[in-house]
DNA-binding transcriptional regulator, LysR family (Rosenbergiella nectarea), 296 residues
Amino acid sequence: MRVDANDLLLFTRIAEDGSFTKAADRLDFPASTLSRRIAALEQQLGERLFIRTTRKMTITPFGQAILRHTQQIAAEITAIDALIEHRSIVPSGKLRVSLPGDFTQALISEFLADFIDDYPQITLDIDVSQRRVDMIAEGFDLALRIGALADDASLAARLLGHFELGLYAAPRYLHHAAKIRQPGDLLAHPLLRLHSDNTPLNLSSGQQQWQGELATKTLANSPNILVNLALRGAGVTRIAAHSVQHYVESGELIRVLPEWQSKKRPVWVVFPATRLMPSRTRIFIDSLVRRFEQLS
């Protein structure tokens, strides 16, 4: 015999309210439905749970014995509901995040520090790697990706924004190197670039377009390395504008050909499409979206 737990909870509510009518009003159930469900439950159990007359309802001794157990079940369910509600209000637990090696460390470090301060109950497990991790197999909750995404039905994505790319060099390099007055002049200069930036250089200025393949002097998977090399006069680097803003404002780097623009690169947050999203993951994504909105 398998008893429906929902019928046991209905029995508990009726017993506590002392009336089928009161329980029906509280549960927003027709009283006739409650009566039918309890009759079926009594049939299953083989004994009466209530004795009802036109004037009153009393619980049988067997019903009292059942009630002690069902009240415990109801209390446990209430505790579970409270736990779920608390966890949704105060996100907690471990969050596994994959970051690409070419993501700007200054930007993400500032964001992560603020997130840790705002949500101390969440533990971050961060993997920084140039490889595209298998999010499902390796148990990652989300990943940040730059550029075009692979077609993968097991993953969902949300666009965070776009990185504006620019060409930058140190004043001392530009002082001694060949002058750069137009895009074609770049062909005489060594390029410091990211591994992921592996396409020909495409620049536009109004209706004008220019494309060229620059000689690469240094490849790296870290924008920080490229910025530091550029600061030391090693050549021209193409990097996200916000990652060098401080150095441009201080005069340590100069934007080369500022009137010529590179195509912006999309930035995505990617997460498993088949999972129920925990509140900690949702909070992290929403926080990322707000941070990128501030940058735009």
